[in-house]
Every structure is written in C-alpha cells, then in structure tokens.
Design goal:
This protein has 246 residues and is α/β, with parallel strands linked by helices. It has eight helices and nine strands. It has a single domain, classed as Vaccinia Virus protein VP39 (Rossmann fold, 3-Layer(aba) Sandwich). A seven-stranded mixed sheet has the order 5-4-3-6-7-9-8, sandwiched between helices. Strands 1-2 form a two-stranded antiparallel ribbon.
C-alpha cells in the first residue's frame, strides 16, 4: 500500500494500515464503506451490487476477476451470480480477512498481490469473462491504469466488459468537500483516502489508447455518493492502431 508522506500538506492514507485498526468484524469499516464513520445501510450495499450485476450482465456462466477487491465483503454477494471468481488486492491484511470469512474454494478465491503483477503472472487468463474494480481505480496512477487496461485487452482475450465503479468525479468535487476547498495537488493524488479525482473526459482519454471504449453512468439519487461519483462500463473497441504502453 501507499505510505504516508510527511511533506504533504494533506493526509495520505493506507487502506492496509487503516483496516488493521478496525474491529475484526467491522467489514464495512475496514474498507471505508461508511458515512461519517458509520457503515452504510443495507439498501446502499444492495444498490452497489445491483449496479455491478446489471452493468456487467453477470450470468452463472461467467468467471469474474476483481481487482482491488478489499476484504471481500461486497464480493461475496456476487458469488451466486457467476460460476467462478478471483479477487486480488495488494493488502495482505484485507485478503486474510477475505479468506477467513468469505472465500469458498475452489470456485471463489482471494489472492494478495499487486494488480499489475498479478495480471502479468496469471497463467490461465482465458478463464475470465468479465472484470470488476469497485472504488479502486482512483488509487492507481494514470500510467498504471493504461498498463492494466492494455494487459487486459491483449492477454485476457475472453474478458469483454469491465465495470469500474464509484470513481470520484472532479467536476463535482465540491459536492463532497463542502467545508473546505482542496488543492489541485490533493485532488490529483491517488494516495489520499478518497484517491484521485478525474473528470469523465480524463478517464475516457485513459482508455482511448488501450483498445477499449467506455460508457458512463451514475447511481440513483438516493445513493449516498451519487452526486460526486460515476461508474464506467468498459467494453472492447474494434478500432485498430492501439498504442502499446507496456
């Protein structure tokens, strides 16, 4: 995980370190699925799962790959919607929680590894049909994202769609920061608790050279973060001449 930097004028954040301070049974608190420190209501979780299932069109024939899966507390609700699942997260602590509480081998498993490292080392990429990253892409730098998408496009041939959920929308950052105005440096830093804020246009440019096309959506207005986050469904483009960024 990213480590704090004493030179920053705003706090850096580590999900791994944060999760270790939480109660072992506080699964939502461990992944900061909270509002003012209080875990979000069940109906909010149900909206997240419904958006993922609908966006990806999950079926019981699918094998789902999830990057930045955290402790698996949300992932487990997808198990009945797919034939197989592999969750990957860089936090060894969160994966330990996932394995202890939610793993159902051999079909539904979790692994502690960095995303790009995992993608490069995966020996059976053809088994996956769809991919998910919920509230995780904002913690990757731009170059990491283009490399991840390029590897997925060229190596994971059977993945036809990717759901990227809950991206902080820079055009609406003011809906989140109501009591202060963060600097452009803070909004552009993936080491903060909320990660990097990007506009839809910026995110679309990231996908443009990697062989994918993107469509955006927002959650219903009753979703707690609908005013300042967006979802992205990424699918394969037929455009030729994709640039290599590996």
């Amino acid at each position: 995980m990213l480590m704090p930097n004493d030179d920053l004028s705003y706090p850096a954040f580590s999900y791994d370190e944060h999760a270790r301070t939480c109660d072992p049974g506080d699964f939502l608190g461990q992944i900061c699925r909270t509002v003012r420190g209080v875990p979000v209501a069940d109906e909010q979780i149900e909206m997240i799962i419904a958006a993922i299932q609908s966006g990806l069109g999950l079926t019981t024939d699918d094998v789902l790959l999830e990057l930045a899966c955290g402790n698996g507390v949300l992932s487990r609700f997808l198990f009945d919607s797919c034939h197989g699942y592999q969750g990957v997260d860089i936090s060894e602590h969160l994966i330990t929680v996932a394995k202890k509480n939610f793993e159902l081998p051999p079909n539904y498993q979790f692994l502690a590894q960095a995303a790009k490292e995992y993608l490069l080392q995966e020996q059976a990429p053809g088994r996956f049909t769809k991919m998910l990253c919920y509230a995780g892409f904002q913690y990757f730098h731009d170059r990491d994202i283009t490399q991840i998408l390029s590897i997925l496009f060229s190596k994971f041939n059977n993945i036809q769609s990717i759901f990227i959920g809950s991206m902080p929308d820079r055009d609406h950052a003011g809906d989140f920061y109501k009591t202060r105005k963060p600097s452009m440096e803070e909004l552009s830093d993936c080491r903060t608790a909320i990660g990097m804020w990007r506009t839809r246009a910026e995110f679309e440019r990231l996908t443009a050279t990697t062989g994918w096309k993107v469509e955006f959506s927002t959650m219903p207005s009753k979703f707690y973060a609908s005013s300042y986050r967006f979802d992205a469904l990424i699918t394969r483009s037929q455009t030729e001449g994709r640039k290599s960024v590996l």
